Amino acid sequence: MFIRCYLRASTQEQSADRAKEEVTTFVNSYNHKIAGFYIENESGTKAERPELERLINDSHNGDVLVIEKMDRLTRLPYQQWQTLKSRIQDKGLTIVVVDQPMTHQALSTSQPELSAIQQALTGFMLDLGAAMARDDYETRLKRQKQGIAKAKEEGKYKGKQINTELHKNIKKMLAGGLSYTDIQNALGCSRATIARVKKI
Fold it and tell me: In 3D, which of 98, 100, 82 has the Cα closest to residue 90?
Protein backbone atom coordinates (compact mmCIF):
# COMPACT_ATOMS: atom_id res chain seq x y z
CA MET A 1 0.00 0.00 0.00
CA PHE A 2 1.31 3.39 -1.05
CA ILE A 3 -0.15 6.52 0.52
CA ARG A 4 -0.36 9.45 -1.87
CA CYS A 5 -1.26 12.93 -0.63
CA TYR A 6 -3.02 15.50 -2.82
CA LEU A 7 -2.69 19.17 -1.82
CA ARG A 8 -4.39 21.93 -3.77
CA ALA A 9 -4.94 25.68 -3.64
CA SER A 10 -7.16 27.62 -6.02
CA THR A 11 -4.87 30.53 -6.95
CA GLN A 12 -1.17 31.20 -7.41
CA GLU A 13 -1.31 33.62 -4.46
CA GLN A 14 -2.23 30.79 -2.08
CA SER A 15 0.18 28.21 -0.71
CA ALA A 16 -0.91 24.79 -1.96
CA ASP A 17 1.34 22.93 0.51
CA ARG A 18 -0.06 24.82 3.53
CA ALA A 19 -1.52 21.61 5.02
CA LYS A 20 1.50 19.40 4.31
CA GLU A 21 2.68 19.23 7.93
CA GLU A 22 -0.82 18.56 9.29
CA VAL A 23 -1.48 15.75 6.83
CA THR A 24 1.96 14.21 7.47
CA THR A 25 1.34 14.22 11.23
CA PHE A 26 -2.07 12.63 10.67
CA VAL A 27 -0.67 9.79 8.54
CA ASN A 28 2.25 9.26 10.95
CA SER A 29 -0.26 8.82 13.80
CA TYR A 30 -1.36 5.61 12.05
CA ASN A 31 2.27 4.46 11.76
CA HIS A 32 2.40 5.04 8.01
CA LYS A 33 4.50 7.25 5.77
CA ILE A 34 3.40 9.28 2.77
CA ALA A 35 4.98 7.89 -0.40
CA GLY A 36 4.42 11.02 -2.48
CA PHE A 37 2.94 14.50 -2.46
CA TYR A 38 1.04 15.87 -5.45
CA ILE A 39 0.80 19.65 -5.08
CA GLU A 40 -0.78 22.17 -7.42
CA ASN A 41 -2.45 25.55 -7.72
CA GLU A 42 -5.59 24.82 -9.71
CA SER A 43 -9.28 25.43 -9.17
CA GLY A 44 -11.24 22.54 -7.67
CA THR A 45 -13.92 23.33 -10.27
CA LYS A 46 -11.61 22.06 -13.04
CA ALA A 47 -11.99 18.39 -13.94
CA GLU A 48 -8.52 18.25 -15.53
CA ARG A 49 -5.67 19.01 -13.13
CA PRO A 50 -2.11 17.89 -14.02
CA GLU A 51 -0.99 16.75 -10.55
CA LEU A 52 -4.25 14.99 -9.75
CA GLU A 53 -4.01 13.26 -13.11
CA ARG A 54 -0.42 12.21 -12.32
CA LEU A 55 -1.49 10.87 -8.93
CA ILE A 56 -4.25 8.73 -10.47
CA ASN A 57 -1.88 7.45 -13.18
CA ASP A 58 0.83 6.60 -10.59
CA SER A 59 -1.58 4.69 -8.36
CA HIS A 60 -2.16 0.96 -8.04
CA ASN A 61 -4.88 -1.18 -6.53
CA GLY A 62 -4.79 -0.91 -2.74
CA ASP A 63 -3.17 2.54 -2.60
CA VAL A 64 -4.62 5.34 -0.47
CA LEU A 65 -5.37 8.92 -1.52
CA VAL A 66 -5.15 11.29 1.48
CA ILE A 67 -6.63 14.79 1.37
CA GLU A 68 -7.09 17.45 4.04
CA LYS A 69 -10.74 18.21 3.15
CA MET A 70 -13.13 17.20 0.38
CA ASP A 71 -12.99 20.68 -1.15
CA ARG A 72 -9.27 20.14 -1.80
CA LEU A 73 -10.19 17.23 -4.08
CA THR A 74 -13.35 18.57 -5.67
CA ARG A 75 -15.65 21.52 -6.13
CA LEU A 76 -17.04 19.90 -9.26
CA PRO A 77 -20.73 19.66 -10.21
CA TYR A 78 -22.32 16.35 -9.16
CA GLN A 79 -21.96 14.49 -12.47
CA GLN A 80 -18.32 15.50 -12.93
CA TRP A 81 -17.56 14.47 -9.34
CA GLN A 82 -19.14 11.06 -10.01
CA THR A 83 -16.88 10.67 -13.07
CA LEU A 84 -13.77 11.60 -11.05
CA LYS A 85 -14.81 9.31 -8.19
CA SER A 86 -15.29 6.41 -10.63
CA ARG A 87 -11.80 6.95 -12.06
CA ILE A 88 -10.33 6.94 -8.55
CA GLN A 89 -12.24 3.80 -7.59
CA ASP A 90 -11.33 2.04 -10.86
CA LYS A 91 -7.65 2.45 -9.94
CA GLY A 92 -8.34 0.73 -6.60
CA LEU A 93 -7.63 3.91 -4.63
CA THR A 94 -9.26 4.44 -1.25
CA ILE A 95 -9.96 8.06 -0.28
CA VAL A 96 -9.06 9.16 3.25
CA VAL A 97 -10.14 12.64 4.36
CA VAL A 98 -8.38 14.06 7.43
CA ASP A 99 -11.51 15.78 8.76
CA GLN A 100 -13.82 12.80 8.06
CA PRO A 101 -13.08 10.09 10.70
CA MET A 102 -15.35 7.57 8.95
CA THR A 103 -12.77 7.38 6.13
CA HIS A 104 -9.78 6.73 8.42
CA GLN A 105 -10.22 2.98 8.67
CA ALA A 106 -8.20 2.45 5.48
CA LEU A 107 -5.10 3.48 7.45
CA SER A 108 -5.79 1.25 10.43
CA THR A 109 -4.19 -2.20 10.22
CA SER A 110 -6.02 -3.32 13.40
CA GLN A 111 -9.47 -2.87 11.84
CA PRO A 112 -11.15 -5.56 9.70
CA GLU A 113 -12.06 -4.88 6.09
CA LEU A 114 -14.97 -2.49 5.59
CA SER A 115 -18.38 -4.13 5.54
CA ALA A 116 -20.82 -3.36 2.72
CA ILE A 117 -22.76 -1.04 5.06
CA GLN A 118 -19.59 0.80 6.12
CA GLN A 119 -18.56 1.16 2.48
CA ALA A 120 -21.97 2.59 1.61
CA LEU A 121 -21.85 5.03 4.54
CA THR A 122 -18.32 6.12 3.64
CA GLY A 123 -19.36 6.64 0.01
CA PHE A 124 -22.35 8.67 1.18
CA MET A 125 -20.12 10.87 3.38
CA LEU A 126 -17.73 11.49 0.47
CA ASP A 127 -20.63 12.42 -1.82
CA LEU A 128 -22.06 14.69 0.86
CA GLY A 129 -18.69 16.38 1.36
CA ALA A 130 -18.33 16.87 -2.40
CA ALA A 131 -21.85 18.36 -2.63
CA MET A 132 -21.15 20.74 0.26
CA ALA A 133 -17.86 21.82 -1.33
CA ARG A 134 -19.66 22.61 -4.59
CA ASP A 135 -22.48 24.42 -2.79
CA ASP A 136 -19.96 26.53 -0.84
CA TYR A 137 -18.21 27.47 -4.10
CA GLU A 138 -21.47 28.45 -5.81
CA THR A 139 -22.63 30.47 -2.78
CA ARG A 140 -19.36 32.39 -2.57
CA LEU A 141 -19.43 33.02 -6.32
CA LYS A 142 -22.99 34.33 -6.11
CA ARG A 143 -22.16 36.64 -3.19
CA GLN A 144 -19.04 37.88 -4.97
CA LYS A 145 -21.07 38.76 -8.08
CA GLN A 146 -23.67 40.52 -5.94
CA GLY A 147 -20.97 42.48 -4.14
CA ILE A 148 -19.30 43.52 -7.40
CA ALA A 149 -22.64 44.58 -8.90
CA LYS A 150 -23.42 46.70 -5.84
CA ALA A 151 -19.93 48.25 -5.83
CA LYS A 152 -20.26 49.09 -9.52
CA GLU A 153 -23.63 50.77 -8.90
CA GLU A 154 -22.03 52.87 -6.17
CA GLY A 155 -18.96 53.61 -8.30
CA LYS A 156 -16.66 51.88 -5.80
CA TYR A 157 -15.52 48.87 -7.82
CA LYS A 158 -11.79 48.92 -8.61
CA GLY A 159 -11.22 45.33 -9.72
CA LYS A 160 -8.73 42.93 -8.17
CA GLN A 161 -6.13 44.78 -6.13
CA ILE A 162 -2.49 43.82 -5.63
CA ASN A 163 -1.58 42.86 -2.07
CA THR A 164 1.00 45.63 -1.68
CA GLU A 165 1.92 44.63 1.87
CA LEU A 166 2.67 41.05 0.80
CA HIS A 167 4.69 42.23 -2.20
CA LYS A 168 6.67 44.62 -0.01
CA ASN A 169 7.53 41.83 2.45
CA ILE A 170 8.54 39.48 -0.37
CA LYS A 171 10.86 42.15 -1.81
CA LYS A 172 12.48 42.69 1.59
CA MET A 173 13.04 38.97 2.11
CA LEU A 174 14.42 38.49 -1.40
CA ALA A 175 16.77 41.41 -0.83
CA GLY A 176 17.84 39.76 2.42
CA GLY A 177 18.87 36.64 0.53
CA LEU A 178 16.13 34.33 1.80
CA SER A 179 15.17 31.33 -0.32
CA TYR A 180 11.78 30.85 -1.96
CA THR A 181 11.01 28.10 0.59
CA ASP A 182 11.85 30.37 3.52
CA ILE A 183 9.60 33.10 2.11
CA GLN A 184 6.77 30.62 1.45
CA ASN A 185 6.93 29.32 5.00
CA ALA A 186 7.07 32.81 6.52
CA LEU A 187 4.36 34.48 4.43
CA GLY A 188 2.17 31.59 3.30
CA CYS A 189 2.34 32.62 -0.36
CA SER A 190 3.10 30.58 -3.48
CA ARG A 191 6.37 30.28 -5.38
CA ALA A 192 4.62 31.78 -8.41
CA THR A 193 3.82 34.94 -6.43
CA ILE A 194 7.42 35.24 -5.26
CA ALA A 195 8.67 34.80 -8.84
CA ARG A 196 6.22 37.42 -10.09
CA VAL A 197 7.36 39.94 -7.46
CA LYS A 198 11.00 39.18 -8.28
CA LYS A 199 10.39 40.00 -11.97
CA ILE A 200 8.81 43.33 -11.02
Answer: 82
